[in-house]
Amino acid sequence: RDRFRQRNAELEEELRKQFNIISELRAEVKSLQADNLKLYEKVRYMQSYREDASTRPSTLDPLPSNAAGRPDDMSKYRARYEEAMNPFQAFRGREATRAYESLNVLERGVLVLTRAILGNRRTRTAFILYSLALHLLVVFTLYECSASSGSSVQRPNRPSIH
User: Fold this and answer.
1) What is the tens place of the pLDDT at every residue in 75-120?
2) TM spans, by residue (predicted)?
3) Are 117 and 123 in contact (CB under 8 A)?
4) What span, in angstroms and rounded, lies between the C-alpha atoms of 5 and 93?
5) How many angstroms separate the most distant Cα atoms in the chain?
6) Per 3-state DSSP, what percentage of the chain is helix, strand, and coil (rounded to 5)?
7) CA 14, 3, 8 angle in degrees (round to 5)?
8) Ranges of each domain in the chain
9) pTM of the predicted model, to two decimals?
10) What's the per-residue H, E or C state across 64-80?
11) What are the tens digits of pLDDT across the range 129-151?
């Protein structure tokens, strides 16, 4: 009976080790798949750059042509890459670009200034303090003007009727 218990304990320990190995390998596979998707995205970027720069001849070609490589090399990552791309986010980006381009120069300037002010916590704080100081200056100026004009205005003497 003791031999079976000892053997059972050894097998359970080996099972735990194998489970840990499997868990580590699964994590590594997920990491490698994510890396492959990032590399595929870089390849797509380089291909689009090469297509854009096709008018300029260059001796440096970072990507081999499709004839040199098998077409199946990239096709298995294309589906995952396109699946990972959020179509709503892409649409939102296109719409934001379209809306920005439809603005006139003054509106673009206001938008850039607003983004610059609201984009950073320090600039927001500085803007709030600046606007508060301006408001206090205006209130103080109005108070001083009203106080000083009240004492300098002389009322005409009205003849009293008795």
Assistant:
1) 777 777 777 776 677 778 888 899 999 999 999 999 999 999 999 9
2) 125-143
3) yes
4) 64
5) 133
6) 75, 0, 25
7) 30
8) 1-85
9) 0.38
10) CCCCCCCCHHHHHHHHH
11) 999 999 999 999 999 999 887 65
